[in-house]
């Protein structure tokens, strides 16, 4: 894969991948059945293509990209090996995955099938979301509730992943706009909950929700005063 130009400050590169379409680099001529795609193989392929992309930004082979997890679980480039301001986030849903890359700003992404439905959306919202979000979701019914819940869930997952927090006990500590027909945005954050410094007010977080290929939707958040998005799809070699 050729070297890639790193994102400008305030710009996020989003890469959509279908692992069944890309196949295994170890067996390039072997077709992958997406209906019988072992989870272990999917995890290995996700890590392989993540390193391939990051290596292309760094000018390195994927095997030379060093990644570690912070104490709260966010994957990061190992600064002992890479003098770079790149940050990244990855989300997966079956054989599809979304990789977001920024420079000089933390990023979080989520990927959800647009047809996904919660078993009891309001019960889940009451247990895990903020009170403000729960009250806002109560005005919706039927399909509109499903759409609003999925929009809210995806946005909140992206924010939590950007902040480097585990989901447990974090989703209720900030609020996003639950309305899918309005621009996605962070409304408020409990002081001190999403970062270790004081720059964690809602205006520091840019949030977008956008359609993705193959009937999926993506959410991306960047901790930066502005956000532009460039989308790409990684396809198999001809």
Write structural notes for this entry.
By secondary structure, this protein is an alpha+beta fold. The protein folds into 2 domains: 11-104 and 230-234, 4'-phosphopantetheinyl transferase domain (Ribosomal Protein L22, Chain A, Alpha-Beta Complex); 111-225, Ribosomal Protein L22, Chain A (Alpha-Beta Complex), CATH 3.90.470. It is 26% helix and 28% strand. It contains 5 helices and 11 strands. The chain has helices at 19-22, 39-58, 121-128, 131-137, 142-163, and strands at 11-18, 67-69, 75-77, 86-93, 96-103, 107-113, 174-176, 186-189, 205-212, 216-223, 228-234. It has a 4-stranded mixed sheet. Strand 9 (205-212) and strand 10 form a beta hairpin. The protein is globular and about 50 Å long. The mean pLDDT is 89.
**Which fold name fills CATH's third level, the topology of the largest domain?**
Ribosomal Protein L22, Chain A
Please describe the biggest sheet, giving its number of strands, its sense, and whether it closes into a barrel: 4 strands, mixed
Mind telling me the C-alpha Rg?
A: 18 Å
**What does the average pLDDT come to?**
89
| SSE string | EHHEEEEEHHHEEEEE
Overview in brief:
The chain has 238 residues and is α+β, with helices and mostly antiparallel strands.
Q: What topology does this entry show?
A:
Layout: E1 11-18, H1 19-22, H2 39-58, E2 67-69, E3 75-77, E4 86-93, E5 96-103, E6 107-113, H3 121-128, H4 131-137, H5 142-163, E7 174-176, E8 186-189, E9 205-212, E10 216-223, E11 228-234
Parallel strand pairs: 1-11
Antiparallel strand pairs: 1-5, 2-3, 4-5, 6-10, 7-8, 9-10
